[in-house]
Amino acid sequence: MERDPVIYSWSAQGDAERLRVAGGEGCRFWDADGRTYLDFASQVMNLNLGHRHPRLVEALRRQSETLYGLAPSFASEPRSELARLLAEVTPGDLGMTLFTTGGADANENAVKLARWVTGRQKVVARYRSYHGATAGAAALTGDPRRWPAEPAVPGVVRMFDPYPYRCSAGHVYDRHGAHAFDPAAGHADDCAISAGGPHLDEILQYEGPESVAAVILETVTGANGVLVPPPGYLASIREVCDRHGVLLIFDEVLTGFGRTGRWFACEHWDVVPDIMTLAKGISGGAVPLGAMVVSEKLRSWLEEHEFASGLTACGHPLACAAGVATIEALREERLVENAAAMGEVLAAELPELADDHASVGELRGLGLLWGLELVRDPETREPLVPYAASGEAARPMAALRRAAMDRGLHLYVHGNLLLVAPPLIIGRDELREGLGLLDEVLDVADELTQVRPAQA
Fold this sequence. Notes:
Elements: E1 21-25, E2 28-31, E3 36-39, H1 42-45, H2 54-64, H3 77-89, E4 96-100, H4 103-118, E5 122-126, H5 135-140, E6 156-159, H6 190-194, H7 197-207, E7 212-218, H8 233-244, E8 247-251, E9 275-278, E10 290-294, H9 299-304, H10 317-332, H11 335-355, E11 360-366, E12 369-377, E13 382-383, H12 395-406, E14 409-410, E15 412-414, E16 417-420, H13 428-446
Parallel strand pairs: 3-14, 5-6, 5-7, 7-8, 8-9
Antiparallel strand pairs: 1-2, 2-3, 4-10, 9-10, 11-12, 12-13, 12-16, 15-16
Helix pairs in contact: 2-10, 3-10, 7-8, 11-13, 12-13
């Protein structure tokens, strides 16, 4: 067979033949042989409107007949309209937008702006946040995906994450502690809270707060654990940043545009950053698009100084037209509300499923973003695969992904985590269909554990 000339990301090019996808509609896609798969991952958590949403199809068709390319120095109706809509839906006084081609360049521009405005150089980032694969974004990223890109862009300082299940201070929490999350009710979580403001404050004292330009973090950590911060965590980070004149950047690339049951995840805790970065769901996944949205406190600097950055495709007309259509669909079809409602279904039914499988160490999430952390032994919490596993060591998780695909279910797998993140258009029937298939996949995972579920 002729070799595929495509270089595929995050994989050795000698891997097995890729599944050739021929089309998709709604929450499903199909391969070249006509086999259909329920998309329980929204591809890579970006197709929030599912596949081939009619509003997006029409918006792209209409825009392509008028203007499908434009230099970034010109103004256009779709770019201006999308910026206006973002000012309406983003929280607080976030209101000025730079459009990019994705989340990595949005994060890079956010850090550059923070350094220019403050005159400082260092940036604090967390170990489990992922911010992109470009050189600067990889330097911000804490997980092993940055290792091949090292030596990295200098100036990044690390902090730990709110991760009670594997508490860095050695506290031990019951596996049932985070089956569901209710931001209003809250839960006792001293380990995670102390990993916020107090931990950051200590880091700033060691680094010298006058040298730190910004703190950047995923509001809810995505593929690296679906780590949902406890009440008080983000507020404590905000307070420390304000006290030391450090800008706060929330990376909402994965969690934005309804994924967690709110327009943006930070709204669960009523904390507003100075800069917010967006991508993935901003265009419904139809066209590559990202954005950096800044608060009013940065307006005067931007009006008085040159913004020394940009990209050829900044504010691309087709991408912005898709963004406008996406926000209109989210509003008119009440898809953010649907994500919250379907999230309640998952919060009720996923714990029951998890309790039936010894391979599930902990379940975490909210809205339509949930993660099942898989272990070999629920008592010792040994991960099903080692941290940063690759090659032979990572095969158990690869086998689970294949088991899911064999059953017609597409899951996102990272490390020892299975993610459940279907499109925001999903209904109860498809949700429960996916959970039934996930139950079968976890049966396969149980065969890899050292402890079997108790017999009835």
